[in-house]
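Treating backbone geometry as a discrete language has practical consequences that deserve illustration. Part of our work consisted of pairing the sequence of a single chain with a tokenised description of its backbone. What the numbers capture is local backbone geometry rather than side-chain detail. For completeness, the protein is quoted in full, as a sequence line and a line of structure tokens:
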Amino acid sequence: MDSGEFTKRVAIAVTIATVPFLLWYLRSVLLVALGATLLSVVLDLLSRPLRWCRIPRAGSVGLAVLLLFGSLGATAYMFGTTLSSEMEDVLKRADIAAKTIADALQNSAWGVSLLQHVDASQLSLTSWAGNIASVSSSVFASLVVMIAMGAYMAAQPGVYRKEVRKLLPRRWASPLEAAAKHVVHSLQLWSIGQAIQMVLVGVLTTAAVWLIGLPSPLALGVIAALAEFIPYVGPFIAAVPALLVATAQGWSTLLWTLLAYIAIQQIEGNVLLPIIQRRLIAVPPAMILFSILAVSSFFGMAGVIFAAPISVMIYAALETMAPKERTAHAGSGQTQATSRHQARDHF
């Protein structure tokens, strides 16, 4: 082996060894890029009906951005005051209930032992909300960059595809492009299913807690809807403030609230999810749970919200490595043709 070949192999080995450290150092950048990718998928879905009206892609994406954030702004204008006051009421009632529970635990030996291993500040939902608000303000610039990146990626996907092709060996370009198309289409299907699931769970929760008689039903419904973005773990997180609020209303109200949340999760797991997954996309539960653990370890708790889309991306990429199995799983040829057509429309 000559010195040139040896130097080349050493350089490749050093580069490969450096990649994990570089990914760790730039993990916050990767999180922003992931959010931008997901946003570009959503903007592509919203802009597609506008492109059917022969509006140029860049213009349709711009209108989709205005439509998305305009809808959010209009919703905040109509319900923001009510929702804000109800959120404050939920936090206040939950903190009072948590303090009552902590005081009750102080009267028992095992309760005192338990409290010795728990920070008192962790029992306050107000402190949790304050931490979330402080984190949100600190990453405001990252959110702006993420929105801009997502809009540019949705408006000109072909430009970025060509630049990536230049960096890849020619024999890798076509397989990776096919995998990217399948990943994008899978994210589109997941986004549609996730939106439907969040809306339905939010409506069911709001109606249930209103019928039970809990205060601030709109806030509890919004919390349940947002928590659905975190699979499997989110419903338990959403149930905590509702159960704490219900403790002040008596044991019967607490029992009805617990039964209501269990019933909603049973409806979601046995009715909504099978329908959504059969029509859109299904990812193995074990893979999602592993993704939650891995993402929380790598990105921290802020990255847990992206555990589901990461699972979808990995699962879709793995599917491209087994085309026969994917074909059998996908079903009819018509479904596959539709998938290829929609993915081609994105690129």
Observations:
- Residues 57-105 form the longest helix (49 residues).
- Residues 157 and 163 are 10 Å apart (CA to CA).
- The mean pLDDT is 77.
